[in-house]
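I'd like us to work through together how a protein chain folds, taking it slowly. We need material for that, and I hope you will provide a protein of your own picking. Go ahead whenever you are ready, and we will take it from there:
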Amino acid sequence: MQKFIPGKVLKEFKTRSGKPAILRYTKWEDLSELTKYVNEVSRENIYVGFSGEQLPRKEEAAWLSKLFKDADANERVQVLCIVDGKLAGAGTVNTKANLLRRCRHIATLGIMIRKKYRGDGIGTVMMEELIKQAKTFLKGIRIVELSVFAENKPAIKLYKELGFREVGRIPGGLKHRGKYQDDVIMVLKIAG
C-alpha cells in the first residue's frame, strides 16, 4: 500500500500545447491557492456540484484537514496539476468507508480543470493518475464511480475512452443554470 506524502510529485508530463506540467499530492501550503481555485471554478457556474457558492478559507482548511486524515488512513487522495507554477486542475478519489461498510470497495472520483487549461490534455492525464491512485493507494477498491452532468458531453466522452461505462441516470438529478438535467452515473471496474 502506497503512503501519502504531502507534495510528493507523482508524474511529470507535457500538455498538448507543450507546457511542462506535474501531478502531485496536495500539501498544506496549497490552502490559499486551493480556496482561490475552488471559488474561481464555482463562479464560472460550470458542471460542478457547488457552482455559485463561495467557499471561505476556514471551510477549505477544514476540508483539507479531513483530506489529510483520510489520506493517512488510505481512504482518500487528492492530486493537483501544476502548469507553469499555477494550479491548473485538481482531482480527488476516495472510498465510501465513511458511509456504508458494504460499499467500502467503491471509490468516488471527481476532477476540475481551470478554464484556461481545458482542452490541453490535462483531464486525461489526471484521470489516468487518479485511477492508478485508486488501485495502489486506497484499501480494497474494486470499482471507481463518478457522476457527470448529462450535457457535459466532452467529459462523458473522456470517461468512456478511459473505460468507464454508464450504469444509470437520475432523471433531473442535477441542476445547472436553472435547468434540471440527468445525473449520469458511470463506473470502471478495476479489480475482480
Notes: The chain is about 30% helix and 35% strand.
